[in-house]
Design a protein that fits this description.
There is one protein chain. The protein is α/β, with parallel strands linked by helices. It is built from 13 helices and 14 strands. A seven-stranded antiparallel β-sheet has the order 6-14-7-8-9-13-10. Strands 2-1-3-4-5 form a five-stranded parallel β-sheet, with helices on both faces. Strands 11-12 form a two-stranded antiparallel sheet. The longest helix has 26 residues. 21% of the residues are buried.
């Protein structure tokens, strides 16, 4: 598979070396019938050229030098234009990025802590051949996934564009300004992407798909998960109330997430034991028990929420799975102090496609309060 690679390097000799290394790698990989990665290389000698190419091409891999000479200037060891390129990539492009530098400690000092785990820093003492080899050997999976994501998004957007947007282009701009129409188009495209991929669930939802970790929204939202004094809660305040103007009676509603990891572990262990026994009926029964558990165990007062993992103070911790216990609901006054506290204690957000079912079951639970059950009338 051909992958677009951007190399940001100000030295002409190094640029020629990169082109030679990539060409040699491609020649070798062409003889292999194993889905090997090949690279289409583009180079940039300065920040301006790099930014222009980033906004022109669709790169899935970038290799960046930190110190880039500016035109008409001598080499400046305080120059960190390469970091500016990196920041632009992080804010605009889905791309596997490598910092290739003779000053790796300087690179570590200038990259934000939250980015250091997934921005690879490689000392120039490492040969270019070795770096390319490490990309295809150690990071092939993530690079191919990035490329596949971009292809699927592009394919889905093209379908919408040519079948729906382009034939009705004049209507989009008939009564709205350019900015307003572009914002509407972006929302429409996002809705289409969500709908087009929502049906692609033959293998079921991936555990990581349930959450945004860390949360993407700067403001509190329905489905935000709060960890406070060892207790996990989820915000169930309706989204429409979250965006309305605050009043003296405004509140946040939070539901307790009850840890069900012990029960979950027992069900998984039971399934594995039945698989070892090799008896199909018992395997099927254990699978049904597990599925029943994920379907809230037939309870109306709880909602299953998948487990997740995250690092706290550098240590990875596992949470859940949980039942959101609707009978353990509390409200707190909505003000600046409570908002800042919840934001500070927020560790994850439930993904948008999983929020409606939570809210729907919460509403169904409270709608039943005080409703008599006529399904089992007493015998006279």
């Amino acid at each position: 598979m051909m992958i677009n690679l951007l190399v940001v390097e100000d030295d002409n000799d190094h640029i020629k070396d990169w082109e030679k290394v990539v060409r040699r790698h491609n020649d070798v990989s062409m003889t292999q019938d194993d889905g090997s990665i090949q690279f289409h290389i583009e180079t940039a000698k300065n920040k301006e050229d790099a930014l222009r190419k980033l906004h022109t091409y669709n790169f899935s891999v970038a290799i960046i030098d930190i110190r880039l000479k500016r035109e008409g200037e001598e080499e400046d060891y305080n120059n960190t234009d390469g970091i500016d390129v990196l920041k632009d990539i992080i804010s605009t492009v889905s791309c596997y990025t490598v910092i290739y530098t003779g000053q790796p400690k300087d690179a570590e000092a200038t990259i934000e802590n939250s980015h250091q785990e997934y921005i690879k820093i490689v000392d120039r003492a490492t040969s270019k051949n070795a770096l390319i080899k490490s990309l295809v050997d150690e990071n092939k999976g993530i690079i191919l996934s990035i490329n596949e994501l971009k292809y699927k998004f592009s394919k889905s957007m093209s379908s919408l564009f040519y079948n729906s947007i382009w034939p009705r282009w004049s209507y989009w701009f008939e009564n709205d300004s350019l900015d307003s129409a572009n914002a509407a188009l972006s929302r429409h495209m996002a809705t289409h992407l969500h709908a087009s991929f929502l049906s692609d669930t033959e293998l079921g939802a991936h555990p990581e798909e349930y959450f945004f970790i860390p949360p993407l929204q700067e403001k509190l939202d329905t489905g935000d998960i709060i960890l406070q004094e060892g207790k996990l809660e989820i915000i169930v305040t309706p989204r429409c109330d979250m965006v309305r103007s605050k009043s003296e009676t405004s509140t946040y509603q939070l539901v307790t997430l009850e840890n069900k990891s012990e029960q979950w572990g027992k069900l998984l262990a039971e399934l594995e034991a039945k698989k070892e026994e090799g008896k199909p009926k018992k395997i099927e029964s254990a699978s049904r028990n597990l599925k029943k558990f994920t379907n809230h165990n037939g309870e109306t007062g709880g909602h299953f929420i998948q487990s997740f993992r995250l690092k706290i103070d550098g240590k990875e911790q596992s949470f859940g799975p949980f039942y959101a216990q609707f009978n353990q609901l509390r409200s707190i006054v909505r003000n600046q102090e409570s908002t800042e506290l919840l934001l500070d204690k927020r560790i994850a957000s439930l993904s948008n496609e999983f929020v409606p079912s939570l809210v729907e079951r919460l509403g169904a639970y409270f709608s039943r309060i005080g409703t008599p059950d006529y399904s089992h009338p007493e015998s006279s």
